[in-house]
Amino acid sequence: MKAVIPAAGFGTRFLPATKAQPKEMLPVFDKPTIQYVIEEAVASGIDDILIVTCRNKRSIEDHFDKSFELEQTLQSAGKDDRLKQVRDITDLADICYVRQKEQRGLGDAIYCAKKHVGNEPFAVLLGDSITKGPTPCTKQLVDVYNKYGASAISLESVPREKVERYGIIKGSEVESDIYKIDKLVEKPLAHQAPSNLAIMGRYVLSPDIFDKIDETEPGVGGEIQLTDALQKLDAIYGVTFEGKTYDIGNRLEWLKTSIEFAMDDAESKKQLIEYMKEIIEGEE
Ligand code: G1P
C-alpha cells in the first residue's frame, strides 16, 4: 500500500511561525512533525510515500534528502550517534513529491496523488497531526479496510464547542469502536452537527475516491473538501482508534504536544518537571 501526505496548507492558524517555514516542519520536542507522520506510515507497513507540497515547502524535501556535508562533518568529528540519526532519516522511506499548484482544498490535494496511487487502496495521513497509540493509527485503519473491504477513517469524540473545526460523522456502531458511517459534514455549526465524532486526519481509502473528488463541487470555504467526496463513497467505516491525535497546526496544542513528548524522554522528564514546578510556584 502507498501513503499520501498532504502538506500544502498555508498554516495560517500558526502565523507568524509558519510565514517562511512549513507547519509540517515545526519540531515537536526533537523532530519535525512530518517525520513522526512518516514514521507512523512505516510502522504501519507502508514505505512508498507521496508528499503533496506547494511553494515554500522545500525544507520538507531537504529534511529527507541526503546531506553529504553534514554526514562528512559528523563522521570526521566521530559523532557516530548523530551520524546514524541523520542517515536513518534518509533511509526511512521511499518518498516522492508532487506539487498542488493552487490551494483548492484537501480534496484537490489528494486528487494530485491520483497518478502515483493508481488503482489500489491507499492511506492518507495529514501532515500536521501526530498520533500515538499501542498500534499505529494507520495500521488500525488498514486492518478495518481489510476486514470490511471498504474505506476507513479515524475518529475521536470532541467537545461540542469544537465540532466547527472538524469533519463530523453520523453512524451506527457495528462492533466496539467501529462505526458504519451514513453521513459526513465538514465543519458544521455546533447545533447542526450530527454527532461529536470528528474525523481525525487518518484515512485508508479505496481508489474510487478519485472519481468522487472529481465530481465534488467546492464546499465549505469555497474549497474541494475530502469530506464531501467521502460522502459519495458506497461504504465507509469510522474507527475510534486506540490512542490519541495531536493537532500541530494550533499553537497551544503544539506546545502541549512538545511537553508531552519530552516527558516520554527519561533524560528530559526529570528536568522538565523541576522547571515546570518552578514556573508554577512563581505563579502562586
Ligand atoms: C481537515 C479535514 C477535516 C478533519 C481535520 C482533522 O480539516 O477537512 O474533516 O476533521 O482535517 O484535522 P483542516 O484541519 O485541514 O481544516
CATH topology of the largest domain: Spore Coat Polysaccharide Biosynthesis Protein SpsA, Chain A
Strand order of the largest sheet: 5-4-1-6-11-8-12-10-9
> How many domain modules?
2
Largest sheet: 9 strands, mixed
Radius of gyration: 20 Å
Number of helices: 11
Overall mean pLDDT score? 95
Series of H and E elements: EEEHEHHHEHHEEHEEEEHHEEHH
Q: For this structure, what is the CATH class of the largest domain? A: Alpha Beta
Listed once per kind, the bound small molecules are:
1-O-phosphono-alpha-D-glucopyranose
Dominant shape = globular
* CATH homology group of the largest domain: Spore Coat Polysaccharide Biosynthesis Protein SpsA, Chain A
By DSSP, the count of extended strands is 13
N-to-C CA distance = 53 Å
Structure commentary:
It is a single chain. The protein is α/β, with parallel strands linked by helices. The protein has 2 domains: 2-249, Spore Coat Polysaccharide Biosynthesis Protein SpsA, Chain A, CATH 3.90.550.10; 250-284, no CATH class. 36% of the residues lie in helices and 25% in strands. Helix 3 runs antiparallel to helix 4. The structure holds 1-O-phosphono-alpha-D-glucopyranose (G1P). The site of 1-O-phosphono-alpha-D-glucopyranose has 14 residues, from strand 11 and helix 9. Residues 106, 126, 129, 166-167, 186, 198-201, 225-227, 247 line the site of 1-O-phosphono-alpha-D-glucopyranose.
